Amino acid sequence: MSSASADLHQMASLGRLLARIVHEINTPLASIFSNNEVLTRSMANLGPLLADGSPEALAKARRIVAACADLTAVDKIACERIRGIISGMKTFARLDSSEPRVIDLNRHLRDTIKLTEAEFRGRVAVETDLADLPEVECYPQMLSQVILNLLVNAGQAIEGGGAIRVRTHRDGNMAHITISDTGRGMTDEQKTRAFEAGYTTKPIGEGTGLGLSIAREIIEQKHGGSIRFESELGKGTTFHILLPIRQTRSSQ
Amino acid sequence: MNNNGDNRASVLLVDDEDMIITSIRAFLQLETDFAINAFTDPEEAANFVKSNQIDVVVSDYLMPKMNGIQLLSRVKEAQPEASRVLLTGHADKQSAIQAINQVSLFQYLEKPWDNQQLLLVVQSGAERARLFRDLREKVGELDSAHSSLKTVQKRLIEAFL
């Protein structure tokens, strides 16, 4: 595959990712904005009520304080939500050096999964079952790209509601990641052509058909690992990624 | 104004995000005496409007199960007088146009919203719904007055023939 088309694909998926992230940050932000105004007004209302000092005024003041406490609790949740999104982005945006890095793979997967919450919005639940793993030597950003791609594909394969299961375990000197969905599965033709560059089942404009071919390039060429899948029509698809725990080959 | 003496306007809030509901509810409670009902599940909201009169509905767009446009068209079916407001974080003009055409929205607002604007929209939406309902009542009264007049007229004619 040409690196120009790979770049194009990366830009398109990055654009979609950004749009989702903007949307996801917007909700807690809107809430914080509104709450801040309500809190400011409530403060202004409290002064006269406390100065009044009558039982009715004090009762009203207590109600306002209780309402404000609820809003500050919401603000905390909203801020934590934004922080979670930002921390996921940091992982994704960290520039890859030309050398592989040693990382906590499970944590890396969790951060990447966080980025998909905006896309799935409760429609698809992502469940994790992550076993104890030694630190894995890899190219983290590229790996994120692959995982994100598989998760988004899995989500798109699920019509209505469903679940994606991400599991890790150690398999000798390899780390084994599986991503299973309860989606529509693939036909025989789709199975044969899945890794083919330019092949897509998505409507024009939604998929470039490059995701899986790039995924294979990243896992096999760059990491010396392997990627394969099994799929049953109407039941779902499971992808398996095997990554060497240590990179023995010199990087390209 | 209702005959039962409760003249509070009724607002329905629907958003799959709890935090949005909490924020808007807190604001409206501070600024108005409106009766507020809120749901994070649009299906429940659609059931609610079948048996509860509302004046204004403020709905999110992107929700699991049912989107805001689908919900608002169900509200329109059940209570055509209710003012329909879409509050969306989806910065997509296409959905706005679709909503305005399909369910004849009263207002389209974007997140993050401006509280004063939201207040104005909810107040004028409630006013509008009441005017519509009053109008329908008056038209009904006129209709029945008209038909009883006709009956009287018919009897009169019959008496003189």
Q: Give the helix proportion of chain B (percent range).
A: 55-70%
CATH architecture of the largest domain in chain A: 2-Layer Sandwich
Which class of secondary structure composition applies to the elements of chain A?
A: alpha+beta
Number of helices of chain A: 6
What kind of sheet is the major sheet of chain A? 5 strands, mixed
Low-confidence stretches of chain B: 1-5
Helix content of chain A: 55-70%
CATH class categorisation of chain B: Alpha Beta
What is the CATH superfamily of chain B?
A: Response regulator
Secondary structure tally: strands of chain B:
5
Distance between the termini of chain A: 16 Å
Give the C-alpha Rg of chain A: 23 Å
**What proportion of the residues of chain A form beta strands (DSSP E)?**
15-25%
What is the element layout, followed by pairings?
The complex is a heterodimer of chains A (252) and B (161).
Chain A: H1 3-52, H2 55-93, E1 101-103, H3 105-120, E2 124-130, E3 136-138, H4 140-157, E4 162-171, E5 174-181, H5 188-193, H6 211-222, E6 226-232, E7 236-244
Parallel strand pairs in A: 2-4
Antiparallel strand pairs in A: 1-3, 4-5, 5-7, 6-7
Chain B: E1 10-14, H1 18-31, E2 35-39, H2 42-51, E3 56-59, H3 68-78, E4 83-88, H4 93-103, E5 107-110, H5 115-160
Parallel strand pairs in B: 1-2, 1-3, 3-4, 4-5
